């Protein structure tokens, strides 16, 4: 548990709260972070012709190398295909996740998959891709 995650003020022993009420009052004084991010929306249920793709990457900071992987399945979770690739000279974990998505999309294109749900654990990357797709719609 992180008790200092909201930036608890540095209190000397003389000014430390002595009761639950004082503690709660002190917490109310600390400005709470505001979150302006919209709640992510999930798309509707996949249709029978939708291929679901899970991507992932493991980045080694010391060697600047990453392992990329992807798995394609039906909506009922039956695996269709998978792939992996070792990529050198990768500058960051975000770049590694982006490369995993790129390789998965190349795999999907080679197998003529038409309707794809792409799932990644890199929320920032997916948010950026979705934002770009809203601005510049395209078909893969």
TrEMBL record:
Matching InterPro entries: RNase_H-like_dom_plant, RNase_H-like_EbsB-rel, RNaseH-like_sf, RNaseH_domain, RNaseH_sf
Domain of life assignment: Eukaryota
Residue ranges constituting the RNase H type-1 domain according to the UniProt record: 57-131
CDD domains: RNase_H_like
Pfam families: RVT_3 (PF13456)
Family annotation (PANTHER family): BNAC02G40300D PROTEIN, POLYNUCLEOTIDYL TRANSFERASE, RIBONUCLEASE H-LIKE SUPERFAMILY PROTEIN
Official protein name in the record: RNase H type-1 domain-containing protein
């Amino acid at each position: 548990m992180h008790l200092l995650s909201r930036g608890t003020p540095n209190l000397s022993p003389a000014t430390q709260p002595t009761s639950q009420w004082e503690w709660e009052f002190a917490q109310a004084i600390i400005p709470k972070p505001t979150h302006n991010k919209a709640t992510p929306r999930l798309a509707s249920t996949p249709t029978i012709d939708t291929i679901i793709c899970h991507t992932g990457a493991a980045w080694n900071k010391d060697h600047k190398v990453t392992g990329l992987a992807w798995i394609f399945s039906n909506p009922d979770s039956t695996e269709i295909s998978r792939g992996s690739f070792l990529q050198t000279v990768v500058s960051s974990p975000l770049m590694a996740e982006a490369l995993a998505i790129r390789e998965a999309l190349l795999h999907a294109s080679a197998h003529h998959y038409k309707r794809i749900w792409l799932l990644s654990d890199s929320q920032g990357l997916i948010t950026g891709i979705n934002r770009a797709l809203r601005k510049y719609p395209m078909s893969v």
